[in-house]
Write a structure and sequence with these properties.
By secondary structure, the chain is mainly β. It contains no helices and 11 strands. Helices cover 0% and strands 53% of the residues.
Length: 117
């Protein structure tokens, strides 16, 4: 059974930083492409960052230069480092993995990030 467990969300002031973590089990992690989406109230879910199994990252224009994705294959964990946070970054952040031969997409439960003074 594939499971993704996210952590690290919370309330932060504008200009602050947070690091989200996503621990994956039930897949061959080193073969997975992974990433983070976010969904703000009343808006569609949008892709924020992604990283391939080979470590190549792709970052949305809206967060370029502020957000960084990384992975630790030894810990089956992907990270999202968020710096210089803005109120418009407020959203529920979802980790996903693309896993398997087909492949299939699996989601975490989401973690709330609120940027407010």
């Amino acid at each position: 059974q594939v499971q993704l467990v996210e952590s690290g969300g919370g309330l932060v002031q504008p200009g602050g930083s947070l690091r989200l973590s996503c621990v994956v089990s039930g897949t061959i992690f080193t073969r997975d492409d992974m990433g983070w989406y976010r969904q703000a109230p009343g808006k569609q879910r949008e892709l924020v960052v992604a990283i391939t199994s080979g470590g190549i990252a792709n970052v949305a224009v809206s967060v370029k230069g502020r957000f960084t994705i990384s992975r630790d294959n030894a810990k089956n964990t992907v990270y999202l480092q968020m710096n210089s946070l803005k109120p418009e970054d407020t959203a529920v952040y979802y980790c996903y993995t693309l896993s398997g031969l087909t492949p299939s997409m699996y989601w975490g439960q989401g973690t709330q990030v609120t940027v407010s003074s």
